[in-house]
Each structure stands twice: as C-alpha cells, then as structure tokens.
Specification:
The chain has 245 residues and is an alpha+beta fold. The chain is built from ten helices and seven strands. The strands form two sheets. A five-stranded antiparallel β-sheet has the order 4-3-7-6-5, with helices on both faces. The chain has a two-stranded antiparallel ribbon with strand order 1-2. A hairpin with a 2-residue loop joins strand 3 and strand 4.
Length: 245
C-alpha cells in the first residue's frame, strides 16, 4: 500500500472554502461557509480573511465571492507568453518604479488579470470589482480595448455594463469610445476605479495579442509614475518579445 501523503490541514481547509464559494450561485455568508465545510466559525473567519487578503476571495455586503486572483490563475494558462518570463518583467518594473505591476490579456472576449507583482511598500490596488464589470474604469482595460479594431471594441463596450465606481468613472459609451479611439500608446486611470489610486498602462505591441501591462500608485504619486512612461513602454515591448518563437 502506497504511503499516505502528509497534508497541511490549513491548506485543505482553505481550499474547501474556495470550493464552496465557487460552487455557490452568489455571495455566501461566512457562517454558511463554515457550516458547509464543517469548520468552526472562528476558523472559517480566519481563513476567509487570509483568502481575501491574498486576492482569492472578495468580501461583499452579502458574503464572499471569488476574487480576481482566481481569474489570474486561470488566465495564466492562456497567456500568449511564458508566465515565468512575464513575471520577471513585471518584477523588474515593480522595482524600478516602486509600484504594483499588472499584466492583463483579452481571453475569449473577456479581459482577465494574468499576473500581479506587488510588495508591502507598494501594494496592489484593492480589486473590489472584477474586470468584467470594471474594464472601462481601469488603465489595463482601456489599454487592451484600444488595441482592438473599432467594431470589436464597440461590441465589447456595448455588451458590458459601465458601472459607476467613483465620481470620476466614465459611464457614457459615447465618451468612452471617443477616449479609446484617442488612446495611442498609453492609457490612464485617474481615480476612475478607486479613489486615491492612479494607474498607467501600455498595450503589448505584438500582432495577435491583446494584452497590456500597468502600474498603480497612490494619487499623490501620479506625477512620478507619469514621468516614467519609458519604463512602462519598455516592459510592454519586452513582454511582446518574450512571446515570439
């Protein structure tokens, strides 16, 4: 008989919570998750806080839903460049600019986060709304959409809600389409997704790839990151080259 593997109970419990959230039709309260997984309520709360902090779950007023990091893991399988190489490029960008760095791709008609590199000194934006409902309010989403032909861009904009996330969010499809048409090599989110945060994104200049790389910083640092556009463009070019055969 083969020896039984040594399992880390906390990992098994956390995964059971993820499975329970994924199987639900909507947000699930913590107490219901604890009952469904057979965990003490205190243990469930502790694990849920950890999963939220790491981006695997998102806490809403109604309960818990899957977070963007789950999409990032799924999206990495479809990334047109080797994930380990893009991660190194994002890591370098993070260090150079002292900012959280992100990579997104258009996958089967949806914009997905593929990777994030951050640190305690330069944490990621609180991803409280998924990209399906927020691409119009993010530099990453706008940079990806700007790479599409006009008809595909219009189809995306017309088939997705333009949620009003902050007072600065553009919710007019006409205005958004005009902005996207005017976007050339950079897209900016000036507190449109989250008040107090500014993001700058550059599309990946590679044929057959709809992707973008971005950085986010507190609004007070907007001038400094806007002054380092060259590093962002270079990272986008490196990612494009990493995907070549």
């Amino acid at each position: 008989m083969a020896p039984q593997p040594t399992l880390i109970n906390s990992v098994v419990r956390a995964l059971s919570l993820l499975d329970a959230v994924a199987a639900a039709d909507g947000p699930v309260p913590a107490k219901r998750l604890a009952h469904a997984t057979g965990l003490p309520v205190a243990t469930a709360y502790h694990l849920l806080r950890t999963l939220v902090h790491e981006g695997y779950l998102l806490r809403t007023d109604e309960g818990y839903v899957l977070g963007d990091h789950v999409d990032a893991l799924a999206g990495a399988r479809h990334t047109p460049v080797p994930p380990q190489r893009t991660h190194q490029i994002l890591q370098q960008l993070h260090v150079e600019l002292g900012a959280a760095a992100y990579l997104s791709v258009l996958d089967d008609g949806e914009i997905r986060l593929v990777d994030i590199v951050d640190s305690p000194a330069a944490p990621r934006t609180d991803l409280w709304v998924g990209f399906h409902d927020a691409a119009h309010a993010t530099a990453l989403g706008k940079a990806v959409l700007a790479t599409l032909p006009e008809d595909e861009r219009r189809d995306y904009v017309e088939s997705h809600p333009l949620a009003d996330l902050t007072p600065r969010t553009v919710t007019s499809r006409k205005v958004l389409m005009h902005q996207l048409a005017a976007t050339t090599d950079l897209a900016v989110d000036r507190e449109e997704y989250s008040l107090g945060t500014v993001c700058l994104a550059a599309p990946v200049p590679a044929p057959g790839i709809s992707a973008a790389v971005a950085v986010s910083v507190p609004a007070a640092r907007a001038g400094s990151v806007l002054g380092h556009r060259h590093e962002l463009r270079r990272a986008a070019r490196l990612i494009a080259m990493a995907g070549r055969p």
